[in-house]
Each structure stands twice: as C-alpha cells, then as structure tokens.
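User: quick one
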Amino acid sequence: MIVRVRAFARFREILGGDLALELPDGAVMAAVLAVLRDRAGGESDAIFDETGAFRSHVILMRNGKRVKRDDLYTLVLADGDEVAIFPPVAGG
Amino acid sequence: MLLLRERERYARQILLFGEEGQERLKKAKVFIAGAGGLGCPIALYLAVAGVGEILLVDRDTVDRTNLNRQVLHWESDIGELKARSAEAKLREANPDIRVEALAATIDEANVRDLIAGADLIVDAMDNFPTRYLLNREALRSGIPLLHGAVRGFDGQATTIIPGRTACLECIFPEAPPGEVFPVVGTTPGIIGLIQANEAIKYVTGAGDLLSGRLLLWDGLSAKLETFAVERRLECPACGGRRGS
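Assistant: Done. Structure below.
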C-alpha cells in the first residue's frame, strides 16, 4: 500500500516535502517513522530522540487528526492515508 | 455612531459588513502582545480597519536587524522603544482610534491587568513560554486568543475560543527548542494578516473562524492548508474545562 507523508517547515528541508511510501499491508504508524528516521540520516535528531521516539514537540497527524505517541504501534494505516509531520514554528 | 469622516474612511469595508459591523469594530478593544514581525502588520491593519482601541505591548527597542520584517519601525527609529515607534505610526495612520503602547515584559504578575477589558488577545510573540502564559490567561478570562508564529518561509495560525476549541497547549504541548530564527518579512506579513483578518471576522461576525483548525503556510511552495485540531482531555491547561 502507499502512504503519503507530508513534512512541513524545517522537517520539509530534512525529509522532503511530499513522499509516497510503499509499506506492507497492515503497517502501523511506527513503520512510517522508521522510514523517516532512516531518511533523515544525520539530521534525524531534529525529529527523533536517542531512543528513536519522535521528540515531544513534534506534531504528527494522520488524515488531519493528531496521532498520540502512545498509539504509534497500534495505529494501523490504510492505503491512501496521509501523514503530516511538522515542528511548531516559534518566531514572531 | 460613526462620524461622517469615519463613514468615508471605511466606505469600502462598510460595503462588506455594514455600518453595524463598523460600529462593532469601533467598540472593540484588541490586545496585541508584541510589536515585532507579526505585531507590526497586525497592529497596522487593525488600526486602519478602525478597531477602536488597540493596546500594544513590547519590551524591546528597535534594532537594525529588525527592519527586514518589522514594518512599523524604520531606520530613524533604531534605538527607540518599539512601543513608542509603533504607537507613533499607528496614530498617524488612523487618528480616529485609541492607541496605547506599553514598553513592558508580559509576565505572570501583569498579564491579567494588561488583558483586562480586551475583546481579543493577539499572540504576536516570538517565544512559547509567553505564548503559554497568554493561553492560560485567555482560558482563565474566556477571551479568545489569535495565535500566529513564523520561521523562515513557514508559518502557522489558529484561533482559540476558550472552552470550545483546542487551546495552544492542546495543539503544542511542548515548546520547540529556542533559536535565533531565520525569517523573511513576507512570512510574518502573511501570518500576521491572517491573524488580523481573524480579528476583523470575530468582531464583525463575518465568515468562519480558524477555530479548531491549525493553518500552515508553506511560503516556498506557496501552499496554505488547514488541519483539524481537537482538544486533549489530558491537556494541563484546559483539560478540565468544559464549555463556559
């Protein structure tokens, strides 16, 4: 199945703005994050901490709804899902 | 009642929301936290739209590095308090409104007094700790908070209606790390004017607000979109509050 991932703000610079990920049917949200972690390479610490979890200020959404950190391993994705990932911006 | 010259000044927007809408703007008091990249365009456009009372608070003085985006402050204002610089420009832009600008740091001790009597709180800050303070005060007082923030070519905005929509801590439970953020002036111009537009809609009752939606602006690809945002029951700021 194909899951679309869109990164915003600084994460777009690191991950690319619009990705189509091919994942096995039944993949959970954590699988998307694993792909993104690899893709981010040396800059992954802007998004992920030492344990591999995404940082607490990072916003993750699936089809426009916020994804909780507790649900990463239970949230099963479907073909055509859209995942958005972004950090809040803070300047004014 | 509008004066004759006010009917002239606002003629084109009275075509949109009538004299009644204009009178609502005239009676409105808006608190703007910050006179920087966001605060300058917000204050200017709300002033010329005829918001009757604008209270602007900023503790800083004008620095040359501000001038690429803080459009109420000019070369001749370097070294001047931003509050004073902004106040002078706003008075000249529209002498028919009341403008008060204070050089002060918004903190826990003064936030309640600063915001008292306002119809709206506009977040034009450059840091999350003060934003969280404004959010808590908005929740306590029930006054809506218009959030905006920028970095580089990117921006975000949302309209928080206490007790009804996600609050700032529901959407952003943790502040991103601090930094000297890169920014081009058009980004706070765009986001600031979205906030000002929300203020005008809120006061006049026109249109649909950005309440319960987070707007993201990606200036490099010229894309603007909104995501639904929901309240978090476990939110430490508003989780216990139900509709007021």
